[in-house]
Amino acid sequence: MQGVPLSWYLILSAILFALGVAGFLFRRSIITVFMSIELMLNAVNLSFVAFSYQFKQVDGHLFTFFVMVVAAAEAAVGLAIILTVFRNRATLNIDEINSLKY
Amino acid sequence: MDVFLFFLFAAIAVICAVNVVVQTHPISSALSLVGVMGALAVLYLLLGGEFIAMAQVIVYAGAIMVLFIFVIMLLNAGEESKQSKSLVAQFLGIPGFFALLVVLAFGILRLFPNAPRVRFGEFTSAGAEELGRSLFTQYLLPFEVVTVLILIAIVGAIVLARKEMD
Amino acid sequence: MEFIIITLIKLGVVMAVFMTTLAYLQWVERKVIAHIQLRMGPSRVGPHGLLQPLADVLKLITKEGVVPPHVNKLYYLLAPFVAVTFALLAISVIPFGDEVEIAGYRTWLQLTDINVGVLFILAASSMGVYGIALAGWASNNKYSLLGGLRSSAQMISYELPFTLAVASPLLLVNTLSLREIVRAQEGFLFGFLPNWTIFQGPFPQIIAFVVFLIAVFAETNRIPFDLPEAETELVAGFHTEYSSMKFAAFFMAEYANMVTAASLVTILFLGGWHPPLPREWGSDFIAPLIFLGGAAICFYHGLNPARRLDRYTLPVAGLVFAGIGGVFAFPAWKDALLPVFWFCAKTGLILFLFIWVRGTLPRFRFDQLMGFAWKFLFPVAMANLLLTSLLVALT
Fold first, then answer.
1. Tell me, what CATH number does A36's domain have?
2. How far is C111 from C92, CA to CA, in rounded Å?
3. Is residue A15 part of a domain?
4. Residue C324 placed within a domain
5. Does residue C102 register a pLDDT over 80?
6. pTM over 0.90
7. Does B77 contact C at CB distance below 8 Å?
8. Which residues from B are below 8 Å from C126, CB to CB?
9. pLDDT (tens digit, 9 = 90+) per residue, C272-301?
């Protein structure tokens, strides 16, 4: 036996994605929720790279590249929002940041 | 060797990812996430993506996560306060997680019954040159769109984080 | 199998030389700064204080390692390891010299060459900030926290001009492998000007060189950008709460980063191991002449000693210098050693510049530091990159 089947990489990606979903749903700190999103993005990146290996093309790598760029933009804006929210509310708990609900 | 490296770094990635979710302190979560990203970079290397592995470390671990840690330190975010969870989360949380996992894994194994085996060094045409060539010819439009997105994000971040002038 | 043994031997040699360099770099720094300030510098331990690094290491090892009670223990202990690991990691892709043949085995004077060597160094250096940020946060001390915050803000900001300045010479050499980068700078323009990227057409990278040097000063937290450890404001910054070997680890990380950065400057801009003069102009004789000149000076001062001990120590130093100079007389050794000599000489000059600047310039204020990065260095590096790519595309 040489090497692991490609599907195992996809299953690893699925595990990481599910963990990201779990973190997104169960955690209450806005920063950790945000980090769970990054975890999901990373899991998807792994699938892209694995598919790129299967088809022996660079397209998957480029998608990963775009995801990274979008994640960077998202992190900058998201953290700026978190800073503003913390400045106005002095809390990071998403249960207490609910004005837009009503 | 490939198998050993895959299992080692897959285990590191999963353990760190679990740690991201269960740790109550944001700094611990952030550092675990850095661990996930490092392990994923090694897996990218195994899949022949040397450029993307380095980009992963530089962009994700070296820039985005440093930004996270910077904000956590700046806000001095402490431990997450324990909250009374909703009934749904309490009873359906962990079973739901495993159900999602089983469905995903089942789907993957059904869709790829005889997926190719990954051998290190079999796919070597994902270096900087090939990526660049593809990025600036075939994917030029997405590239330009993404640059505009980044510009908007920079302006947005500055406007949002600026202190209000009285 | 042979490959593994050769690599292990190389690893051992590089590690030993690198560690010694780190220890003695500190001695050199103290001596040079002392002479800039008209002092003696370390002079008690051994002749001219030459054994001072050894004494320092002994002191740091035997000192009590204090762990303050209010720290976050795991991260507090993890931080120095992170800092020193990523600082030492980068040296593994630095090429010190050409291919050599030792006892029948051909090998490169480099631990390993990877296709994305430049990116590897960037990755290692960008991970280094975690050590500092963690140390600042885990120490549970306001000065440490401020030092860590300043450091991470500074390093994220200066990463941009740093990366842009790295990118422009890469456009000229067309590769990311450090070995290939040096090989692309071989030869001479018009017969005398070395074909280094700071002179190479179509657009000489002098601007990128200066921007890179400034950004490197900031990345290694050196004066004039040492805000994270400014003692007049923050006691000792992020390592206020660290003592004994944990403190030494941060110290080592800082000097290792300096050496890596200086090597990177040498490789990217100053032609790596290539000599600055054509061989016909006698560049082969510069190295032995420098060592023999050093030997002559030592012998002269040994015969006319300023202090009693100099009568014995200086002739010994002179013999060592003469011996090193004599090695260059053997043609087989000369070919292997000359590239290493030029690499070390260029890196040493850059390191001297680091120390010189520390002895000369005052410290920035923090808002000036950030303004400088974003309003001056970043646009300059960007303009340089655009101009370079335009000219490369046109030619």
1. 1.10.287.3510
2. 5
3. yes
4. no
5. no
6. no
7. no
8. 57-58, 61-63, 66
9. 788 887 777 777 777 778 888 888 888 888
